[in-house]
Structures are given as C-alpha cells and as structure tokens.
Amino acid sequence: MTSANGEGPLLGRDAILRLAQDRATLPTRDVPAWGGVVRVRGLTGTGRDEYEASTMVWRNGKAYPDTENARAKLVARCVVGDDGEPLFTQQDVHALGELDGLTLNKVWEVAMELSGLTEADMEELAGNSSAAQSGGSTSGSPVTSARQSASSSRKSPPAS
C-alpha cells in the first residue's frame, strides 16, 4: 500500500516497532586523545526524554535548568559497545566529566548530531522550564549554565 502522497509505502505498527529491535551498524569516531575509537549511537525517544529530564532539577514545584555535567551525561548514554549497549552507567558521569573538555565536547557533538539535538533544543529546554518562564533562571545554554553551575555551591542530584 502506498501513502496518500505517493512517497512510499505506508508503514504499519509492526514495521515501525521492528525498527527499535534492529541494530544497524553504528558509527565509530576516532578519539586520539583517548587512544582509540568509540562507537556512538543516537538517543532513542525514551533516552532523549531521560536525558532532557536529567538536565532539569525540581525545587518547590518549579523546574530549573541543571546542566552540570550535561556533556558527560549525554556521552554516557550514547557511547556504546559492539552490542549497541551503553558502556557507561550514570554513576560514571562524574568521572567522564573529569576527562579533557575539548575531547569530551567532540564526542558530545557527535552524540548531539546523532540524537537530533541542537544547541537551540537545549536553549529551548532551559527556556521552557517554569522557572525560566517566571524569571527564575537567566541561563540559556548548556555552556553558560554549566559555568554558572560550576561556580555555585549547590549540588545537583545524581544523573537519572
């Protein structure tokens, strides 16, 4: 059966859900500073929701941006082994965050691209929080938020 606009077959439920089970070849990226290559996959829909939730913290019923270790959180979710499963747990986020920032950022950029995330998405996430809408936060990007977070004395909850 062809779609109404004639651009290809109309996909059914089973065909779409089968995509979640398929393990396509995942790209590798050379990371000389780490001494080899890493395999990176994009986030699933659920993974993206979990990642975005990990960049927010709730206080007194309001959401505030919490981008502390945002790069390490994403890299932990997206760097995978040959089986397509993440190599790191969320307990590894702090250690990943201690790696060379330039190199971590390069791997983060690949993970962002493969996950369909952009800097604008991150700014929108921070801007759409109830705290930002009520003026509770002026941070708009992961970079500035991370700098503010690093200079503050508050500690965020562990990554989810």
Report on this structure.
The chain has 160 residues and is α+β, with helices and mostly antiparallel strands. It has a single domain, classed as Phage tail assembly chaperone gp13-like (rbstp2171, 2-Layer Sandwich), CATH 3.30.2220. The chain has helices spanning 13-21, 45-54, 70-78, 93-97, 101-115, 119-127, 130-133, 142-151; strands at residues 28-31, 36-40, 56-59, 62-65, 79-80. The strands form two sheets. The chain has a three-stranded antiparallel sheet. It has a two-stranded antiparallel sheet with strand order 3-4. Strand 1 and strand 2 form a beta hairpin. The chain is globular and about 50 Å long.
* Class from secondary-structure proportions: alpha+beta
> Helicity range of the residues?
40-55%
Q: Let me know the average pLDDT.
A: 78
Shape: globular
Total E-strand runs? 5
- CATH overall fold name: rbstp2171
Strand order of the largest sheet: 1-2-5
Distance between the termini: 42 Å
Strand content: 5-15%
Largest sheet: 3 strands, antiparallel
Number of domains: 1
Q: Any low-confidence stretches, pLDDT <50, length ≥5? A: 129-160
Order of helices and strands: HEEHEEHEHHHHH
| CATH class placement | Alpha Beta
What radius of gyration results from the CA coordinates?
Answer: 18 Å
For the record, what is the CATH homologous superfamily label?
A: Phage tail assembly chaperone gp13-like
What is the count of DSSP helices, taking H or I runs of 4+ residues? 8
- The CATH architecture would be 2-Layer Sandwich
